[in-house]
Write a structure and sequence with these properties.
With 290 residues, the chain is an alpha/beta fold. It is built from 14 helices and 9 strands. Helix 9 links the parallel strand 6 and strand 7.
Length: 290
């Protein structure tokens, strides 16, 4: 299948209005999207809404709300411990959707549910898609769902106008990238490094080649994640990716200041620092305005 054919794949056209509008607005301002991940229910469900709003005030453009899972094999120790705390606090898929409903009372930030397959499979694809759409979710990413097993899930989501985000890694062959992006909508999540999530001192040398290989096969926005934790890293990837995904840096801050009254302010400040790194150079800004 040619790159042009992939770009016309119908499932890739099922984009959430909020997500699509966010990327369009950022393009006009010559800025890249900051996508933040937090584990719902960490340190407790009653604090999650306030933490999300703090991130939004700090400039986060899209929020990934993680469903805690007992065996998060793709995650490093920071997010693993966040899942443990959230599960101990009683957080479930139903809890996450209830939190989304609370957020939608006064926030239009695009929301993507980030989960492993098992909790959503047990909940039921149809039930999840129904309740997610009703709650105000914009899409979901199931980290360990393969495209060979995804048809029922993708169809249930597509019918309700919800985005399906899938992962592309450095070891994904080009032919498989083409198949993955056909099933994506909203954006494509590219894994910046081999291994699990966590804070990294540098951006992998394989990140830009992966972005280039994927860009040849889709015109959907490309988000780069795993290991991004500094403003300097944001500046490195801004010329190449449409979005940066930051998770462990935020989750670690939540763990360190969970009982502090200044946690929301610290999250907001960290998000604002990352966002500054995602502004394109002045020359690109002038070109975007022409």
């Amino acid at each position: 299948m040619s790159a042009a054919e992939v770009k016309l794949a119908p499932l890739a056209r099922q984009a959430s209005g909020r997500i699509e509008r966010a990327f369009t607005a950022l393009q006009a301002r010559a800025s890249r999207a900051l996508i933040a991940y937090v584990t719902a229910g960490d340190p407790s469900p009653d604090k999650t809404v306030g933490l999300v709003k703090a991130l939004e005030r700090g400039g986060v453009d899209i929020l990934e709300l993680g469903v805690p899972f007992s065996d998060p094999i793709a995650d490093g120790p920071v997010i693993q411990r966040a899942s443990e705390r959230a599960l101990a606090a009683g957080t479930s898929v139903a809890t996450v959707l209830a939190l989304v409903r609370q957020l939608r009372r006064d926030s239009e930030i695009p929301l993507v549910v980030f989960s492993y397959l098992n909790p959503i499979l047990r909940y039921g694809f149809e039930r999840f898609a129904d309740e997610a759409a009703e709650a105000g979710v914009d899409g979901a990413l199931l980290t360990d769902l393969t495209i060979e097993e995804a048809d029922g899930y993708v169809e249930a989501m597509r019918q309700r106008g919800l985005c399906c985000v899938f992962l592309v890694t450095q070891t994904t062959p080009n032919a498989r990238i083409a198949e993955i992006v056909k099933r994506c909508s909203g954006f494509v999540y590219l894994v910046a490094r081999a291994g699990v999530t966590g804070v990294s001192a540098s951006v992998s040398s394989e990140a830009v080649p992966l972005l280039e290989r994927t860009r040849e096969r889709t015109d959907l926005p490309l988000a780069l994640g795993f290991g991004l934790s500094t403003r300097e890293q944001m500046q490195q990837i801004a010329p190449h990716a449409d979005a940066a995904v930051v998770g462990s840096a935020f989750v670690r801050l939540i763990a360190e200041h969970a009982d502090g009254v200044r946690l929301e302010g610290k999250l907001e400040a960290l998000a604002r620092d990352f966002k500054r790194g995602l502004k394109l150079p002045e020359e690109a800004t002038r070109m975007a305005a022409v």
